[in-house]
Amino acid sequence: MSYFLGVDGGGSKTLAVITDEKGHVLGIGRSEGSNYQSIGIDKATQHIGNAIDCALYDANLIADDITHAVYGLAGADRPKDLAIVLPACRKLPIQSWRVVCDTMIGLRSGSPSFTGIVLVCGSGTNAAGRNKYGDEVQTGGFGYLYGDWAGGGDLARAAFRTAIRSFEGREEYSLLVKLVPEFLGYTDVEHMLNDYLDKEYTNVPRELAIVVHQAANRGDTLSCKILARMGYELGLSAKSVAMRLCDLDEPLDVVLVGSVIQRGRHPLLIGGIEQVLNDSGFEFRLCIPDIPPVCGAVLLAFDDHGIAIQTSTYDHWAAEFGASNHSFLEEKNV
């Protein structure tokens, strides 16, 4: 029996999944984030190793049992990054493996042909594309200074800013005035604002992004504008990839991954993406996978060994830890 390992090493968490050659899930592991650009290569490698160890323990296997692994890692974007990441991955216990950027496991999770465009909207944001010849292009993924604005962190900061601006009368009233301080454990915006100033905080928890969805679902105008803007920004990233990458067949497969999209699925966010692509004249198909990106890493491991997966396997994965059941992946740990 052959066993395959997929790893999704993101900015906020690292997930590892082990399956057999039929796609039966045998083990799942979770650890802290492993983007080396944020925490350094030593901690990143440790967190990847922890997730793998948890998955091996869960599957009652040892590292030598793994036939092949694919690591999809945030921060593995450029040759300079790979020069740091690859030597670190050689220290992990798996013998046969390869590294791809986390965008590629997201694309594979929603594209059987492993072609098209992927938009990532998790703790950060990224966009990439791959054509039938294996050529790849990336747009963004390097932070606000380099043009990005569409990740969970951006959404959380927008919620915080909007709550303050609305409280002070610089914007119309927003439900965020109530929801943001409640989420952060304050009685009101004034106490929250003064505490943040006194303690010289410079950022807010990414988890705060959820309140924008909550407020928008209740018809809050400013929250709706934030989500629409995020969708438009993601649409611009998709357009950029489509224009820069030659030989992309239309209709374009546009795969949307990351917690902000896969959990939120807000129509204003999706609509913003569709608007940009429609206005640009592209034919496209949007896909929000029912399986998390870590399954895309497993699929790439199968691809490397020429193993085809049945449709029933996708259905099983979706039922076990798909978009509607992400809490299973988050809570699974040893």
Automatic annotation (TrEMBL):
<protein>
    <recommendedName>
        <fullName>ATPase BadF/BadG/BcrA/BcrD type domain-containing protein</fullName>
    </recommendedName>
</protein>
<dbReference type="Pfam" id="PF01869">
    <property type="entry name" value="BcrAD_BadFG"/>
</dbReference>
<dbReference type="InterPro" id="IPR002731">
    <property type="entry name" value="ATPase_BadF"/>
</dbReference>
<dbReference type="InterPro" id="IPR052519">
    <property type="entry name" value="Euk-type_GlcNAc_Kinase"/>
</dbReference>
<dbReference type="InterPro" id="IPR043129">
    <property type="entry name" value="ATPase_NBD"/>
</dbReference>
<feature type="domain" description="ATPase BadF/BadG/BcrA/BcrD type">
    <location>
        <begin position="5"/>
        <end position="301"/>
    </location>
</feature>
